[in-house]
TrEMBL record:
Subcellular location: Cell membrane
Transmembrane spans: 12-30, 101-121, 133-157, 177-196, 285-306
Cited InterPro entries: BPD_transp_1_N, MetI-like, MetI-like_sf
Listed SUPFAM superfamilies: MetI-like
UniProt-listed Pfam families: BPD_transp_1, BPD_transp_1_N
Bilayer topology: Multi-pass membrane protein
Protein name stated in the entry: Putative peptide transport system permease protein BRA1092/BS1330_II1084
Length: 313
């Protein structure tokens, strides 16, 4: 197990280095000059050159990348071109908001998805199964920005039950909980649909196994067969989907945070891209990529906890 973890961490480091290189080069090859944006329309050519020299943009791109990686190794993500704020400080301030939204969305996805999948698997080809299948199809097909807008229109504008946007209040307060409901549903719906389909398929496959027939032949109650024997053995593909999609939820917050005016990492990334704020974009992308890779490692380790037959020794 220890060797497996060490090997995976080494792979993570190499992968993140590759991601940092791709993002760095993509930002520098994209149209638009940060120095021109910072200088504004009244800046002269000499002013723009002075800004480029101050930011180090006049150096060769590979030299800039080496300087960036040197700072990264020492824990320095640089400073925002747009605000002058430390990238680390900006991420530290906004990251808890994004994590709160992503975790709430994953809870919504898991609760709805697994419940719908189990109900559908217990009664295949029934009206409940048809309803679950329809929900899965609709959930995967609806874009986040459209669903979020419709939820705001219905529950915030027309019914006035929930706030329009923002996650400014602590989540454990009544107001904070209300602010979290619509963004969490918006972000978690598509993942819930995927988990529902995966749970249904996995449960139906496990239901044909010999140990399930043996449990039923012994007179084990149906509830125990479903929740203890079937579900536990059907969880491995569900864990894979949930883990991968949690990383996707962090990326999906970019759209959801824009719709609900949430000042999280996603919105920070969009602001950085719009202003060609290289350090801010690189820092936020690396953070999301690092979490995504780390979650995949956690999912791999959870396999052994769910199914004792799996060993990494």
């Amino acid at each position: 197990m220890v060797q497996f973890i060490i090997r995976r961490f080494a792979q993570m480091v190499l992968l993140l280095i590759g991601i940092s290189f791709i993002v760095f080069m993509s930002m520098h090859l994209a149209p638009g000059d940060p120095a021109t944006i910072i200088g504004g329309p009244t800046a002269t050519k000499s002013d723009i050159e002075a800004i480029r020299a101050d930011l180090g943009l006049n150096k060769p791109v590979l030299v800039q990348y080496i300087d960036y990686m040197n700072g990264l190794i020492h824990g320095d993500l640089g400073y925002s071109y747009r605000t002058g704020q430390s990238v680390t400080e900006a991420i530290t301030t906004r990251f808890p908001i994004t994590i709160k939204l992503a975790v709430a969305s994953m809870i919504v996805a898991i609760v709805i998805g697994i419940t719908a999948g189990i109900i559908s698997a217990r009664k295949p080809n029934s009206m409940l199964d048809f309803a679950s299948t329809t929900f899965s199809l609709v959930g995967v097909s609806i874009p986040n920005f459209w669903l979020g807008t419709m939820l705001i229109l219905l529950f915030s504008v027309n019914l006035q039950w929930l706030p329009i946007g923002g996650l400014n209040s602590p989540f454990y307060t009544t107001e904070g909980f209300k602010e979290l409901i619509l963004p969490a549903i918006t972000l978690g719906t598509s993942t819930a649909a995927i988990i529902a389909r995966m749970t249904r398929s996995s449960m139906l496959e496990v239901a044909q196994a010999d140990y399930i027939r043996t449990a039923r032949a012994k007179g084990v109650k149906q509830r125990k067969v479903v929740w203890v024997h079937s579900l536990r053995n059907a969880l491995i593909p569900v864990l894979t989907v949930a883990g991968i999609n949690f990383g996707g939820l962090l990326g999906g917050t970019i759209i959801t945070e824009q719709v609900f005016a949430i000042n999280g990492i996603g919105r920070l990334m969009i602001e950085g891209i719009a202003s060609r704020d290289f350090p801010m974009v690189q820092g936020t992308v690396l953070l999301v990529a690092g979490i995504f890779v780390f979650i995949n490692l956690i999912v791999d380790l959870l396999y052994a906890a769910v199914d004792p037959r799996i060993s990494y020794d």
